[in-house]
Amino acid sequence: MLCDLLLSVLLLFFVAITSSAAPTTLAKTQIVCNPHITSPKKYAKWAMGSTHNVTWDIINIPPEKISSRGVLLLGHGSRSNENLNISHPLATDFPINHGWVSVTVPHGIEPRSDYMIVLFGDSGNVSPPFHVVHEMRY
Ligand SMILES: *[C@@H]1O[C@H](CO)[C@@H](O)[C@H](O)[C@H]1NC(C)=O
Ligand SMILES: *[C@@H]1O[C@H](CO)[C@@H](O)[C@H](O)[C@H]1NC(C)=O
Predict the structure, then answer these.
(1) Which domain of life is it from (predicted)?
(2) What ligand is nearest to the CA atom of residue 50?
(3) Structural domain tally of the chain?
């Protein structure tokens, strides 16, 4: 199931970058770029409609991957069942080597405490679980 999801996501990713030569590059290389997500942090609370930077480590990105583009998906649940929202990526076609991309938390999703963000370069990396709430209360 997870493999099927990964496959669909990778296909989506390929579609998103058809203008570049990346698919053949991805197909022939064994180097995997799998950056560690540094934000959202575990148990962060993000309100619907609010804008946040998703950030990741760029120090270990190999030179071959410097020009890779990424896709960010929202999921929830567990590592074995991520319920990734493939049809509505949070961000697409951004440069992985920037180390961050700005996303707006969608309205109309279910408030949950087990949301996660998955960053796809050519392999997925998962953020810690975080909360999405209707609004921030101080
Ligand atoms: C995201 O990061 C960029 C670069 O560091 C910064 O200019 C921008 O203000 C940040 N946006 C948010 C919403 O934090
Ligand atoms: C995917 O995201 C869209 C837009 O935020 C939302 O309307 C839809 O309900 C989500 N689908 C799932 C399966 O979570």
Answers:
(1) Eukaryota
(2) 1
(3) 1
